[in-house]
Amino acid sequence: MIRRRVKPEELELWHQVARTARRLNPEQPAKPQPLADSLSKKPPKVKERPRIEEFKLGEKTTKAGHINDVLPGISERIAAAPVAMDKKAFTRLKRGKLVPEGKIDLHGMTMAQAHPALTGFILRSHAAGKRLVLVVTGKGKDRDTGGPIPVRQGVLRHNVPQWLRMDPLAPLVLQITEAHLKHGGGGAYYVYLRRQR
């Protein structure tokens, strides 16, 4: 917007209007502020922002190398599970003395292939009256690239116990434990099935 000077005839018109104007509320006298008072007031103080000192992440920690890993490994979780089957049979199972009646090898399959294959195998084994089956998952490859979110070793190895504890397999499975070394060790699971009703 461009400002222009006020013409003398416009200024004269304004003065005529101002002389004839009346206040809306005449009972309240006008209190004009002197210009000098309004200029003498100090502007409000602006708060200064606090200065942030330089720092390095973790420089004030007390424990060096502390890692918050709240979830134990799959081997520890399986070993800590309560024994639901006969204790004598469980001891023989852990020593590798019981021979599995069936076996499925999921090693090399994707999760999309392995889950339905495992479900079908357990359902067929239970229907056939088998009690002990071996599920081979493989130990898995270490694919952790060191990113911010850790990648667990052995995707199938971690998912198979979870799948076995979900429907429709959960009512059929009595016990899950890692296999003995002669049957695959940490890369395989013994799955002890319930009796048919």
From TrEMBL:
Pfam family, one: Smr
Region (Disordered): 21-48
UniProt entry keywords in alphabetical sequence: Endonuclease, Hydrolase, Nuclease
Domain Smr, chain residue ranges per copy: 104-194
Sequence intervals crossing the membrane: none
Molecular function GO terms recorded: endonuclease activity
Protein name from the UniProt record: DNA-nicking endonuclease, Smr domain
